[in-house]
Amino acid sequence: MKLDRETSKLANQSMAFILAGGKGSRLQELTDKRSKPAMYFGGKSRIIDFALSNAVNSGIRRIGIATQYKAHSLIRHLQRGWSFLREERNEFLDILPASQRMNDEAWYQGTSDAIYQNIDILESYGPKYIVILAGDHIYKQDYALMVRQHVETGADVTVGSIEVPLEEAKAFGVMKVDKDDRILDFIEKPENPPAMPNDPERALASMGIYVFEAKFLYDILREEACNPDTHHDFGKDIIPKLVKGGKAIAHPFSRSCIRSGLETKPYWRDVGTVDAFWEANIDLTDFIPELDIYDNDWPIWTHQELTPPAKFIHDEEGRRGQAVSSMVSGGCIISGSSLNRCLLFTGVKAHSFSKMSGVVALPYAEINRKAQLKDVIVDRDVKIPAGLVVGEDPELDAKRFRRTEKGICLITQSMIDRLDL
C-alpha cells in the first residue's frame, strides 16, 4: 500500500512502542513456557509478528518492545527474525526488558509504567509521535493513517477502537463517542458494558492502540508517576483522565485496517483463550478465510526457519499421506496419515494410520501410529503415543487433558507423561 508524501513523513517521525509483557494466563498451559506475544500463530508466525509487521509496513521502522513475563523465547524470536532493521537507515528494534532502572521495583508496574521507565531511551531517539501497541492481537492495520488523524484533529490522544459483541466487551476498555469521534466516556473492563446507541448487541471497545505527541506523553507520564493512587495503566488512569480533562479521539479500525480483495470485513482477534486460539488458527484453513495471510502487499514478517518442504508419503488404502482443507508447514512429514481441516506448524511428523481432524499442532510435535485426534491443540515437541484417541469421549478427555467448554482439548507433554497407557 502506497502512502501519500505527508502521511509517509508522519510515519518517519513516529516510533512504535509495543507492550509485550503479557502473561496470557487464559491460554492455560500454552503460556507456561512463553509469553502470549510469543505464542505461535498461522503455521510459522508468532502473535507479535502482526504488530511488528503492521509497524514496518506502515513505514514506522523505529520500534521499542517492552518484555517481562517469561521473555526468553520472545527475545530469541525477535533477535532471529527482526534483525534486518538497520540503524544506519534510522530504523531499529530495541528490546527493553523489565529491569531495576528507576527504583527498587524490578517489574513494570503497568502499561504506562513500562513507557515511563524508558522515557530517557525514547527521548534519545527523538520521535515526534509515539504509537503504543499491544503485542498480543491478530490483525492488519496501517498505523500511519491513525497518526495522520491524530495530527489533523489536534487530539491529546487517539485511541484505536473496534466494535465487539456486548458479552465480550467486559474484557476491554469501552467508549462512548460523539458524531465527531470525540470520546465522551471511557470505562476500563466494565462488569456491565454499555451498548452502542445504534446497536444494542455491540459495544465500542479500545484496541489498546494509542497515539500521542511524544513530549505530551512524557509530561503526562511524569505527572502520573507522582500520583500515589495510580494503577500505572493507560486504560485505568491515563485515558480516563484525558477524556475528562483533555481531547481524546477514537479512531475506528475500519478506517485503517488492511484488506486484500478476499477479505470482506475488518479482521481483529484477541486469541487470549484456548478456544479463541484454536478457532483463529483453524479458520485459516477455510477456502476463503477471513484473514488473508497470503497478501504480498502487506506481508507478515517473521523468523524464517531453514526447513525442507513438507512431504506426503505412502499411497495405499488406509495408509495414505493426505491433507484436505489443511495448512502444512515446512519440515512436516505426513507418513500414511490423514488430515482434515488441520494446521501443522514447522517440523510436525504424523505417522501411518493416524487420523487428525481440527488439529492445531505446534512445532515439532509427533503423532505416532494409529492415533486419532479431533479438535485438539498439541503443544510444541509433544509426542502423541501410538493409538491414543482424543475427541470421542468428553469425560475421559477432561480427566486426562485440558478440555474447554467448547470441547477443544489442549495436550502438553506433561499431560502425556501422566497417562497410564
Automatic annotation (TrEMBL):
Top-rank EC class of the record's enzyme: transferase
UniProt entry tagged with the keyword Nucleotide-binding: yes
ATP-binding is among the record's keywords: yes
Pfam families, alphabetized: Hexapep_GlmU (PF24894), NTP_transferase (PF00483)
Reaction catalyzed: alpha-D-glucose 1-phosphate + ATP + H(+) = ADP-alpha-D-glucose + diphosphate
InterPro entries: ADP-Glc_PPase (IPR011831), ADP_Glu_pyroP_CS (IPR005836), GlgC_bac (IPR023049), GlmU/GlgC-like_hexapep (IPR056818), NTP_transferase_dom (IPR005835), Nucleotide-diphossugar_trans (IPR029044), Trimer_LpxA-like_sf (IPR011004)
Pathway(s) annotated for this protein in UniProt: Glycan biosynthesis; glycogen biosynthesis
Family: Belongs to the bacterial/plant glucose-1-phosphate adenylyltransferase family.
Functional summary from the UniProt entry: Involved in the biosynthesis of ADP-glucose, a building block required for the elongation reactions to produce glycogen. Catalyzes the reaction between ATP and alpha-D-glucose 1-phosphate (G1P) to produce pyrophosphate and ADP-Glc.
UniProt protein name: Glucose-1-phosphate adenylyltransferase
The species this protein was found in: Cohaesibacter marisflavi
Species lineage: Bacteria, Pseudomonadati, Pseudomonadota, Alphaproteobacteria, Hyphomicrobiales
